[in-house]
């Protein structure tokens, strides 16, 4: 198609403003919309009619959550309604490493390279990245499957609500909190698995659900059962569960108190402070306890 044909094509003009040329399509109805009619979504844009239809089809619980939690207008609502891409990415990376562990001869080297133990915070060894790499390696197929099922279920709810960056921050910092508590309470114990991060997501769902007025009895029961099970089950680092649970709850509390756009800086600063305090606690207190 030549330039003149492309320009004269009526499909290249906004369906609501026929005098305005545009080459952007609504991701829902695939009609052309001009900049004034575009609402940014997770992928592409949405036109006003599709946005109106999306709002009309929301359940009462979703509307209540949008009023009490979203607070960001149409753009925030559209962005948070996208697919949980971060959840899928975490599932893919962790599952890939877990499947590699099933190959004969690879499990030992992979665990040895990624597991966390407070001895790796000693200056003579010093591999602090293990505080996070332990989240991506597991002790067996059942361990992996249970954690990935929990991640998939929790991510479907939390990531669209929080947004991708906040969800990822919560997952990683909660996992970091789990590893730090292991270093402080159980120095010398090796740990693997995403359980700390998963418990962080569970406590976050509990805090945020309570904040928007949802019935959190079922969530509280699940958290309680999993927490108690960790205390009595053999070869389970319950310290990581407790650390992730407390860290996730703290982050969720910060999110509920810094929802407005003008509070975004305070939200980022708060997360940075939590991360720094956890790292400092691990680097200073961990080796001291281990060598005591």
Describe the structure.
The chain is mostly helical and 292 residues long. The chain has two domains: 3-80, no CATH class; 85-291, Rhomboid-like (Rhomboid-like fold), CATH 1.20.1540. It has helices at residues 3-8, 48-56, 60-70, 73-80, 85-101, 107-114, 130-133, 141-162, 164-185, 195-211, 217-232, 238-257, 264-291; strands spanning 39-40, 45-46. A two-stranded antiparallel sheet has the order 1-2. The longest helix is centred in the C-terminal third of the chain and has 28 residues, at 264-291.
- Sketch the major β-sheet: 2 strands, antiparallel
CATH architecture of the largest domain: Up-down Bundle
* Cα-to-Cα separation, first versus last residue: 77 Å
Number of domains: 2
Uncertain regions spanning at least 5 consecutive residues: 71-81
Give the CATH H-level superfamily of the largest domain. Answer: Rhomboid-like
What count of helical segments does DSSP give? 13
Output the CATH topology of the largest domain: Rhomboid-like fold
Quote the beta fraction: under 5%
| Widest beta sheet: strand line-up | 1-2
Helix content range of the residues, please? 55-70%
Question: Could you tell me the radius of gyration in angstroms?
Answer: 23 Å
How does the overall form come out from the CA principal axes? elongated
Order of helices and strands: HEEHHHHHHHHHHHH
Mean pLDDT, all residues = 84
Oligomer: single chain
Protein structure class: mainly alpha
